[in-house]
Design brief:
alpha/beta, six-stranded mixed β-sheet, two-stranded antiparallel ribbon
Length: 292
C-alpha cells in the first residue's frame, strides 16, 4: 500500500503534467519524433532508381544478382526511460530533490508518448538494474511508471551507466527513443554510450542542483558523498577552496557535454531551481529545426 503523501504527489504530477502535455508538449513531441523511425520490411530485387546504399550485399551474393532492403515508416514508437536512482539523485537544496525532478520530467515525456499512441518502458538503475517495466500503453501504465520512479527503494547507492545501457541493448530488439536521466556522476561509460546511440535515438537528461556547482561561504562543514559514504570536513570560508571546487565542477560539466557533442547525443540540462519546461521546449525546438 502506497503512503498517502506518495499518492498525493503522484496525483499532483498527473494533473500538472497532463495540463502541460495538452497545452504545450503533445504537438512538439509529435513533430520531433513521429515518422522519424524506419523499420525493415523485406528484401526484393533491385530496380532502376533504387538507392545503391539499400543493397543487401549478403542476399545479393547468394542470389547472384542485386537485392535491396525495403523499409517502412514506423507507426508506433517505443520510448524508454532510463532513470538513475543512485544516492546522489536523492539530493536537492531548492524546490525538490533531483529524483523528484526526474519523475516529473519523465511524466511529461511519458504522457506525451501515450497521447501519440506510443509505448513507454522504464529501467531504474544504480550500480545494478533495480527495476524493469516493459514498454506498455495507456494512462494506468504511465501512472505505474511514475509511481516506480517516485516510490521505488533502490538497493544500490552508486551509479553504473554502462550496466544500464548494456541492459537496454539486451532487452530491446527494435530501435527506441531513449531518455537517459542522470546526474552522470560516473565514469567508464563512453564506449557503450556511443554504441547505444547507433542502435537507439539516445537523449541525455542531466539533472543538477545549484549547491553541487559551488559552495556557500558558511564556515566549516562536513560533506558526505551520497554514493560512497565518504566524508570530509572543509572550510567553505576559504575563497581559494571555493574557487577550486567551482572550477573542478565546471570542468567536469564541460567534459560531459563535450562527450555528448562528440557522440552526436542531444542533452537536456535541468536543475532543481529552474522550471524544466524551458529546457524541454528548447530541446524540442532545436530538434525540429534540424529535421526540417
Amino acid at each position: 500500500m502506497l503512503p498517502k503523501e506518495i499518492i498525493k504527489k503522484i496525483q499532483r504530477i498527473q494533473i500538472r503534467t497532463n495540463r502541460m502535455v495538452s497545452d504545450v508538449f503533445s504537438g512538439e513531441y509529435q513533430s520531433v519524433f513521429k515518422g522519424r523511425g524506419m523499420e525493415f520490411d523485406e528484401v526484393r530485387e533491385y530496380q532502376p532508381g533504387d538507392e545503391v546504399r539499400d543493397i543487401d550485399w549478403n542476399v545479393t551474393a547468394r542470389m547472384g544478382h542485386p537485392y535491396v532492403k525495403k523499409f517502412v515508416e514506423e507507426r508506433e514508437l517505443t520510448v524508454m526511460l532510463l532513470v538513475d536512482a543512485s544516492g546522489s539523485s536523492r539530493f536537492g537544496t531548492r524546490n525538490q530533490f533531483k529524483s523528484e525532478l526526474a519523475a516529473e520530467l519523465c511524466a511529461v515525456l511519458a504522457f506525451s508518448a501515450i497521447r501519440n499512441k506510443d509505448k513507454v518502458g522504464l529501467i531504474i538503475f544504480t550500480d545494478t538494474i533495480e527495476k524493469f517495466v516493459p514498454p506498455g500503453k495507456g494512462s494506468r501504465h504511465v501512472l505505474r511508471v511514475i509511481r516506480e520512479i517516485l516510490y521505488f527503494q533502490p538497493r544500490g547507492e552508486k551509479t553504473d551507466i554502462s550496466l544500464a545501457l548494456d541492459y537496454l541493448n539486451r532487452v530491446t530488439r527494435r530501435r527506441t527513443v531513449t531518455f537517459l536521466v542522470s546526474d552522470f556522476q560516473a565514469t567508464g561509460y563512453e564506449k557503450i554510450l556511443r554504441i547505444t546511440n547507433k542502435r537507439h535515438d539516445l537523449i541525455a537528461v542531466r539533472t543538477t542542483d545549484p549547491r553541487e556547482e559551488e559552495l556557500p561561504p558558511v564556515g566549516f562543514v562536513r560533506l558526505r558523498d551520497a554514493e560512497t559514504g565518504g566524508e570530509i570536513t572543509v572550510d567553505t570560508s576559504d575563497p581559494d577552496l571555493r574557487e577550486r571546487y567551482r572550477r573542478g565542477r565546471r570542468e567536469e560539466k564541460e567534459a560531459i557535454l563535450k562527450l555528448f557533442r562528440s557522440s552526436d547525443i542531444d542533452c537536456i540540462e535541468v536543475s532543481t531551481d529552474k522550471p524544466y519546461v524551458t529546457a524541454l521546449m528548447r530541446f524540442f525546438k532545436e530538434r525540429e529545426k534540424r529535421f526540417r
